Amino acid sequence: MVEEELKKTALYEVHNSLGAKLVPFAGFWMPVQYQGIIAEHKRVRNTVGIFDVSHMGEFEFSGADAEQFLNRITINDVTKLQPGQVQYSAMCYEDGGIVDDLLVYRFEDHFILVVNASNIDKNREWICENLPLSGVDFDDISDDIALLSVQGPKSLEMLKTVTTPDLESLPYYHFLDGQVTGINAIVSRTGYTGELGYEIYISRSNSEELWHNLFEVGKPFDVEPIGLGARDTLRQEMKFCLYGNDIDAAINPIEAGLGWITKLKKGDFIGRDALIKVKNEGVKRKLIGFETSGRIIPRHGYPIYAGGREIGITTSGCHSPMLERGIGMGYVPVALSEPGIKLQLNVRKTEHPMCVVKTPFYSPTKT
Amino acid sequence: MNIPAELLYTKEHEWVKFEDDVATIGITDYAQGELGDIVFVELPQVGDTIRKGETFGTIEAVKAVSDLYSPLDGEVLEVNSSLEDAPETINSSPYEDGWMLKIQITESVQKNDLLSADEYKKIIDEA
After folding, report:
1. Is the complex ipTM more than 0.90?
2. Using one digit for the tens of pLDDT, what is the confidence trace for B65-81?
3. Distance from CA of A249 to the nearest CA of B (A)
4. Sign of CA dihedral A345, A347, A350, A353
5. What class is the B9-107 domain?
6. Are A46 and A168 in a shared domain?
């Protein structure tokens, strides 16, 4: 992508003034780090940090048939959602490959889907291709919505005095429609870090005001801005999938470990026939979590070996700031996917030991 | 951005310091900043021969891995073994304690292909 064509979030200048390193990501200039990935990662694990993730896409659906349509185009069961609830889900192609993973928000009279920035255009086209002629109104509101994510064990303490209605009683994967520091906001108890945390959706034009307010409110909690670099290492410690790395159009949700959001019994949906077949025949490969020893650090696309033969490939990997060793995710044959199994990771043409482990790799602070 | 005037540079962001026929090699302040937190560096061994323009090692930051390119031909005389346990020294002191290799050089003319501090600064400014 030509750099001039990259979009900027409303906080671009703020990030610049904070000394962030801004890089092209999913069509946007995004802050990859401010102070350093390890410090930012630990900030979120130990107290609280704020991410600008306004690049994420938001699609609004309304109309008499909106629920029915969303239940057909996503794999989780939308009919189980109460107003005020959020659901992790995905869209699949007819062959069971994943279009995108996403969140579904149910309001009284409409829905919002939150999708990956890198897939906004593709998702919009896929939805339009499948949209019925009437009964569903669909609007891509991504450019109007900003998203700040406040994550960490101190996030509730920090936000509760400036949020209405009451934040303390908000359960996991629920949202409220209210105000944060007097600014209209949708606040959901969701995140991509494994920690207690909240995602705050606001009008783009309120981004800067809310950002500054949150840093004022967060001062006693040592709040810091967190870049996408730490967002990636935080999600990897939890073995959360990243589209384009661990899941894509050639991978089905069952082998990716997303069987728990794949509701084959809910009735017809796009990809169901293919996924029933996968389920009946059993998956051939599975997404594992593994650790390396020494100073070997796995990355996306490294070959995995067993007995001198290439049997799989890594999809994500990094140095875990909390565990201080290499952790990774990858696909291997089911027979070799059990925790404790020892395999070899091919790093720059040399084999190094790796071990399949239970995940998440890291257990977040209990709150 | 720290770019010491007395050193020579490559466009791959390595620095070289010459003392008689020995060259000390490391990566620049700009390079360590771009890489972020460095967690591992893989270097050749004493006695290995490295070739100009070819990779002589790798550097792992939290986020990504990068190759290290040799600025000149030579034989490895000494490796900074403290980097094995404390690779973050490259972040904190790229030109001093974070040096990587000392090389026995064979041809002094190799200097001519390297960049001065001013020339290197121009490359950074355009990056």
Report:
1. no
2. 999 999 999 999 999 99
3. 25
4. negative
5. mainly beta
6. yes
